Fold these 2 entries.
Entry 1:
Amino acid sequence: SKTDPILENPVEIQKKLIETISKEPKAARIMHICGTHERTISKFGIRSLLPPEIEVLSGPGCPVCVTPDNDIDTAIILAKKGLTVVTFGDMLRVPGTEESLFDARAEGADVRMVYSIDDAVKIANENPEKKIVFLAIGFETTIPTTAAAILRGLPSNFYIFTSLKLTPPAIDLLIQDINVDAFIAPGHVAVITGTAPFSSFEKMGYPVVVAGFESYDILLAVAMLQKQLKEGAAKIENAYPRAVKAEGNKIALKMMDDVFDVSDSDWRGLGTIPNSGFVLKEKYKDHNAAILFYDLYKDELTRLEEVRKKKKKNCICATILTGKATPEKCPMFKKACTPSTPVGPCMVSDEGMCHSWYKYNRD
Ligand code: SF4
């Protein structure tokens, strides 16, 4: 964009941003809530470029990581009951209570990987004799794509199990109980929602900056947050004006509103958060897998919930998602748990904090 000077000489600007940040830095714990931000921060070693007084933490920003055990288990149960389950690649590898979708596939269940809901609809059209269940995960960033496909019309053998998450209610919950001084907000969510949903930070007295996904975007956000912290300010600022408008994307918001109702939703690490998810509207009840196949999965899901209660929890992914620990605090990190042998969801997704730390922190 010609309107964003940061793009004209990003290298030089990054050097200046690091100088600015490093000049009498104010000690601060800054949390981002986005897996893509974590990937940029880890990949470019941004933590090592910042003065030691500034700590950057990762919050619950990776859709694979926040999908709860129950939703993964439900998809596995449905696949083992003879339905075709389709979802994104990372979801196949996330361990459920006893196994993953990948394991279920190895045992003969029909589990397929797709890159989008459109791929899933194509499978349904090509296999009219099968019942296709799409496990839909994601935040505001990708939900409009799902909404658009539904509005285009779904085959009668296509069902959706929604595990879609809305960011603002999770933020509201997070800031009740967290030792953080400022936040970096996810630019791609704000592209859809605008900046208003991040007003909770401001109201609770936290500075917040909406940031893009390049290394210079992150550094700019940190510099702007430092300025606010030094001035004692607490407001929303937009460091990603080349993509984010204050009002968001009205067309995408309307599509989501046409297709989904807001509902309570379970988040790994945060529990059930009121009004933090989407379910299909009543008019799409013929495609609602959670309701139509409830009798198929409810008993086995209850059994798995009991198994989980008795299981010793070794994975501290839930603690990491709330910024209370970093991956190296987990005794399994880089030992039993690696990207090729993931024990928890934070190691599966390349947006998960454990995965990013494994891949890029080579100390
Ligand atoms: Fe869980 Fe593995 Fe991360 Fe440990 S390293 S918290 S086991 S995902």
Entry 2:
Amino acid sequence: RRKWRTVVEILKELEDDCDTPVGRLRQVVDAMAVEMHAGLASEGGSKLKMLLTFVDDLPTGREKGTYYALHLGGTYFRILRVLLGGQRSYLDVQDVERHPIPSHLMNSTSEVLFNFLAFSLERFIEKEENGSNSQGVRRELAFTFSFPVKHTSISSGVLIKWTKGFEISEMVGQDIAECLQGALNRRGLDMRVGVLVNDTVGALSLGYYHDPDTLVAVVFGTGSNACYLERTDAIIKCQGLLTTSGSMVVNMEWGNFWSSHLPRTAYDIDLDAESSNANDMGFEKMISGMYLGDIVRRVILRMSQESDIFGPISPVLSEPYVLRTNSVSAMHEDDTPELQEVSRILKDLGVSDVPVKVRKLVVKICDVVTRRAGRLAAAGIAGILKKIGRDGSGGITSGRSRSEIQMQKRTVVAVEGGLYMNYTMFREYMEEALVEILGEEVSQYVVVKAMEDGSSIGSALLVASLQA
Ligand code: ADP
């Protein structure tokens, strides 16, 4: 087995294959906008499903009352209660419970999963209300469900497919809100599932509640997805769709986006082939928290197979998903002089006592993989801005005057999810690339705003807005 030179070559190849110069990002931007058009033009017209959400009015700030929200994400589920006082400033999030989803539930049965969620809700309510449902009225619940759903109304829709490692096949085609309502009824809980909402739509709702310039929301968590406010007349596949606002939120399901311009490596190809949803969710597999760690693991594994810089090959390195993205960020952001954190995490992978030079190499791998993710994420966002005419492309063609450029409208992009919230380097790479793509001028009109717990709080706002 050869040594350092081989490893340097593998790293160089990785860097080349992950390269995202701004020209290439612009091609991704264009491809995203084109696919959005195609997905809106006809059912099955694109890998982007561009799903109707039946959310046409976003919260105004005048919502009142007490509401519950339950969010089933990819790794976590959350329950919270909000109190709304009828004024934007009076939004009291009374309690947020966040728990990891027990992994056995991900491939159990529909009944087991929903009984568990109903049970967790019941416990939460008992704790919150301390034994007394003070108003004696039925509780309203917003159900945030972070998987692709074909909606028939704002409160009903069927599961299209699972993603992010979930595999309960009997649930595909079933109405998700009904499943939860059934479980609540079985427990005798006086609670109604008032809305069924994608997590991105929740984030958009919270963003809009605070700032009506919010037109786009993106989630970078275990998975990744985006939604935005579209004019109904642009949703060509639904001729005659009428809403009072003239628009509707579209859930893009952008995790499934694909373009030949995406820089794909041999590691991505293997990761996809070995996943539970092969040939699916190609974009998500390059940019989201479930997968970044596993791409890094695959690079380290290959280096350890083709050189001896990591010592004897550790069997742990061959276990899919053992290296979590949380550890990738911890290594990437390790600022101890000897890279102690990197050393500790490598030890957990069965790799001990590597010199600082090798630890630095590992940090470099994390950097390359995360930089690509952040930059592609930015290209995705710019693609949406392009589709809705907020990327400045109308304003920066030659011959336009400066004052016309300043006509550009302000657009807020609400962003949520554990990867974005907690991985500073990912966030910085994304924001930096967005400025690179849009240019300094136009970037001043695009505000990226973090929406912590937006997926759940925003859904509660939506259910509240329906009561008004
Ligand atoms: P979910 O996707 O389950 O709704 P989150 O939005 O909280 O939940 O995202 C959780 C995911 O975010 C984790 O699975 C992980 O991939 C990623 N994540 C969380 N914390 C960090 C971190 N410190 N560094 C990098 N990634 C993180």
